[in-house]
Amino acid sequence: MQNGSRKLLIIGNWKMHTTGAQATGLAKEIALGVGPRVDIQVVLCPPFTVLEGVSQVLSGSTVQLGAQNLYPGPMGAVTGEVCAEMLKAVYCAYVLVGHSERRVLLREPDELINQKIHTALENRIKPVLCIGEPLEVRDSGNTWPFLQTQLERALDKVPQDLIENVVIAYEPLWAIGSGQPSSPDGAQAVHAQIRQFIDTFSSSAAKLRILYGGSVKPENAQQLLAQPDIDGLLVGGASLKAKSFLDIIG
Ligand code: 13P
Q1: For the CA atoms of the chain, what is the radius of gyration?
Q2: Which of 12, 32, 180, 211 is 20 to 30 A from 45 via CA?
Q3: Are β-strands 6-13 and 40-45 bridged in parallel, bridged antiparallel, or unpaired?
Q4: If you take atom 7 of ligand 1, which residue's CA is the nearest one?
Q5: Which domain holds residue 153?
Q6: Angle (CA) 1 129 174, round 5°
Q7: Can you tell me which atom of ligand 1 is nearest the CA of 235?
Q8: Is residue 227 in a domain?
Q9: CA distances in angstroms from 92 to 44, 139, 173, 235, listed in the order given
Q10: CA-to-CA distance for 89 and 128, rounded, in angstroms?
Q11: Around 89, how many Cα atoms within 13 Å sit in the side-chain half-sphere?
Q12: pLDDT value for 1
């Protein structure tokens, strides 16, 4: 499954769920279900405490590993943080950056998000930059200016030739965990705008993968993936059960 030259990317964000055996069991079931498929890329983002165990389960499979966060600096005296070197040691290929739960609950600012993007790219870990507007912004008709500002700040000074290593995930806040996903048409319109915007400063816009996230379920996944600018999905709740996640992958 491809959108032009873009291989579809389905990421499971386990958020703050799973401990030891639960995580490795879930990863095993998913890796087995995905099997030898190379037409799509599946990525799992478990919590830090189980990254190593899940990494071992996924070794030799086609499913890749991602982290949910990273500290924008080298190994050192930073209590409670995890750096890129640690993520690479467990073979993380992707890292989520700027998830709305971190932006809102931990007041993560755009500046820090920008530093994390730079650090990930310098370490050859693909950052998955999450952007999305809250309900009041959507209702006031200001979705695009809001998203453009998030993009400009997060991608500040990222060399244009590295843009194709960034993944953008459009996750409207009103759709996350609400059971109210964006309509496929609505999400497509935003994705097309994001690609047009990237095209204004990078020649890699056609290669950039733009994912949709927010209440993705087996029932709506295929319709979303059928849109020309939706290159994959970032799945929360429905990635915590092997069957529903595998049904989303299709
Ligand atoms: P849900 O799929 O649970 O709505 O979560 C989406 C999300 O935030 C993924 O990062």
Answers
A1: 17
A2: 180
A3: parallel
A4: 236
A5: 8-13+38-245
A6: 90
A7: 2
A8: yes
A9: 10, 38, 26, 18
A10: 19
A11: 8
A12: 59
- Strand ranges, E, within the chain: 2-3, 6-13, 40-45, 64-67, 92-97, 126-131, 167-170, 209-213, 232-235
Specify if 129 maps to a domain.
yes
Catalytically active residues are 99, 171
For the chain, counts of helices (H) and of strands (E): 10, 9
* Tally of domains within the chain: 1
Both tokens of 170, joined, read 């459009």
Q: List the end-to-end C-alpha distance of the chain, in Å, as a whole number.
A: 10
* Number of Cβ within a 10 Å radius of residue 237: 17
Residue 28 included in any domain = no
Asked whether 98 and 130 are in contact (CB, 8 A), the reply is yes
CATH for 231:
3.20.20.70
Q: Cβ(173)–Cβ(137) under 8 Å? A: no
Ligand 1 atom, smallest distance to 176 CA: 4
Mean pLDDT for all residues in the chain: 97
Residue 212 has pLDDT above 80, yes or no: yes
Amino acid, res. 195: R
Query: For 183-210, how does the pLDDT look when each residue is reduced to its tens digit (9 = 90+)?
Result: 999 999 999 999 999 999 999 999 999 9
User: Helical H runs in 142-183?
Assistant: 143-154
Structure tokens at 15: 């958020």
From the CA of 235, how far away is ligand 1's center (Å)? 5
